[in-house]
Amino acid sequence: MQLSSAPQGFSAVAGKVPAPCLVLAGVCGIQFGAALAPRVYPQVGSAGVVFLRLLIAGGLLCVMWRPRRAALSRMKGAWPAMLGAGTLLAGHHIAFFAAVESNVPLGVVATIEFLGPFTIALAASRRLADLVPACVAAGGVALLSGGGAASLPPGGVVLAALAACCWAGYILVSARMARLIDGGQGLAVVFTWAALVSAPYGILHGKTALLDPHVLWVAVVVAVASSVLPYSLNLEALRRIPPRVFGVLTSLEPAAGAVFGLAVLGQHLRWPQWLGIAAVASASVTAVLTSPEKRSRVRATGSPAAETSAAREEAGVPACGVP
Which pTM was predicted? Predict the structure, then answer.
């Protein structure tokens, strides 16, 4: 299937950048966008930001990848997977941004949310040694409260946990989608459907403020930084680095969330919370490095697209990389 000139041009430029730098840039983009979004919470709330982010990202991805309905329809099982992934993506975004709006620090939300893919990584193994990173992660979560449960809004923690559950479900569904659809065409449909799912909630809260130029400008930056750019960078990086390396690099996301929360939002964490974030990130790195290797069934085809899909599946990475 022929790609549009936009992805081809992007690949040509990104191909000159070391793959680990692409992943780290995606991690930073995600957390920077999440830190920038609260600037327009007073006008449209987290619901309005989510709707605009998904709508703009879906539109840009459709322009980049130009999904064809006829081509997607020929892929058996593609549409249920895409619609399921879009629904879970919308639920994840709504819960994640609402948790930040409830005054839970961005680094804490990102850490709790990261437990979703971390749990999937542990569930794939049956070895007793894997209990060690699980215990370290559990201790890290306990430290996030800073020594007292009252230091974090309980409702916000529940929302962050809901985001983790939705993200884990999205990874499982999008892994199937990655086997059915090459490139970013499926992701364009996923984001478009997620925007439609979040539209009633976002419009109800944002109303006419959604058309404010300042709000739209921030939404564009958030959509590009947190959705379009990370997915494109991760897709290119996964063509050149092993899934384990990708998993280790993305384990830095909770720490990046804490740094951008401090730099952009002025969210100061106490030392037990920094230690908790470090514990969860370390547990994730350990789980990735000690997980048994999987042999891909499709890599023997020699197709770059098939290898990319296989790499995403092995790494437990969703079709767009990260939220």
Answer: 0.83
Taking the C-alpha atoms of residue 101 and residue 115, their distance in angstroms, rounded to an integer, is 20
- Model pLDDT for residues 141-171, shown as the tens digit of each residue: 878 765 444 578 889 999 999 999 999 999 8
Reported as half-sphere exposure (CB side, CA atoms, 13 A), residue 118 has a value of 33
Summarize the chain as % helix, strand, coil (round to 5): 80, 0, 20
Long-range contacts of 147-153 (CB under 8 A, 24+ apart): 147/270, 147/272, 151/270, 152/104, 152/108, 153/102, 153/103, 153/104
Count of beta carbons in the 10 Å neighbourhood of residue 300: 11
In angstroms, the Cα distances linking 245 to 124, 126, 238, 299 are 18, 22, 9, 18
Give the Cα separation of 317 and 171 in Å (integer).
6
